Amino acid sequence: MARKLLPLIRDAKELDPGNGACPGCGSTLVLSHLVHIILSAGRIPFFVIPASCWTINIGRFPQSIGHNKISFDATLFASAPAEAAAYADVFGRIKKREDVIVVAFCGDGSTYDIAFGGVSAAAERNDNFLYILNDNEAYMNTGIQKSGATPFGAVTTTTPASSPKQGEKKDIDFILAEHKIPYLATATLGSVPMLKDFYAKVEKAVFKKGFRFIHTLNPCPPGWKSKSEDTVRISELAVMSNIFPLVEFENGAWRITHMPLKTVPVTEYLTLQERFARLTEKDVAFIQSSTDERFERFKQLSKK
Asked: Domain 5-303: which CATH class?
């Protein structure tokens, strides 16, 4: 990046205080910095937001956040990718507004499940918009129900303590990469290096054309049964444990963008979240093995 990142990070105040998000909401940090990066890049964001926490947090009068800095269309679960493609066509092809960037800001329930076909279709068509996956690993806005993003062993209201989630999380990153899209990346807001990684990836995506996909992992204290003050630490441990590697897929090639200086066992990540309190030693060993296997795959692909 041409600009220095730290002054940009310190000046990120795009969302007004007093919104409807829960204390410690990880996606609030992502959205605030996301809008700041886009505006700093000289672009005007237009958001398409399907049913989620953010159709409430961003739009309730008089607590709407961002004022004139954020224009958005609150839409249905299944239609966000199609609507974002339509808006991108209107702004780009018809109105010739190169300064406007259309952003679909969608949760994991929409992305992994209800609108999965629409996401795949938009990727296959290479529609010209930026897709931000706000992944908090369940349907948090409607009552913490299991989604395709819910990890193995997690307790939700539809996978209760007596029967935690048994299947593994759908690997959306590899699925979308198989569509040969121009750009895909993962990001989470933990330590400063991870924040700088996020800034670099979003700015890169802003100036690209076609379907760009950034997968952000965002802790949800009510859903993850974690302390609000632990949100940033949990994001950091997700990367340090290799549960959530920071990677990007560009020009058909994978690259690890941030290699932890110190790798920690998955237990350090899991123990800060009560949703994993029922895990057995066998369960933890399975999660560790699966995590190591997936990260090794990224390492091998990065070498290529």
From this structure: alpha beta
